Amino acid sequence: MNRQCIKLNKILMMQKNSLIALLDCCFPNANTLFTSPCRELDGHEKWVDFVMKFPHADSVAKLLNSTLETLAKFHSEMDSLASQLPEYETVMSLFGVGKVICSQLIAEIAISSS
User: Fold this and answer.
1) Is the model's pTM score more than 0.85?
2) How far apart are CA 60 and CA 65, in angstroms?
3) CB-based contacts of 26: which residues, under 8 Å, 6+ apart?
4) Residue 50, phi-psi category: left (phi > 0), alpha (psi -120 to 50), beta (remainder)
5) Which parts of 27-113 fold into alpha helices (H)?
6) Lesser CB count within 10 Å: N end or C end of the chain?
7) How far is Cα 23 from Cα 69, in angstroms, rounded to an integer?
8) CB of 84 within 8 A of CB of 106?
9) How far is residue 55's CA from residue 78's CA, in Å, rounded to a whole number?
């Protein structure tokens, strides 16, 4: 699951870069206008939702939001599975580690151990 999450993150970055390139043609640096993080519930970002209001980038924005939603579901499921393990609290106590990094670290350690 973690490897799929990593692959989705790569796809997400390519899609974001494509959207930013399209957006820069009409609204230079529009992606920097909104600095709030992704919504935890569905993974949407404000600047992508803003772009969806304009038809020229509609298809790219929908694809990007679809990827963000899938990634948010992966993160939620990975956290749900990782939180059942005894090492979860130990990894969460590390400085700078949140739910996403914690579940990814646990997944990678489990893969390397097998």
Assistant:
1) no
2) 9
3) 54, 56
4) alpha
5) 46-52, 58-82, 88-92, 99-113
6) C
7) 21
8) no
9) 35
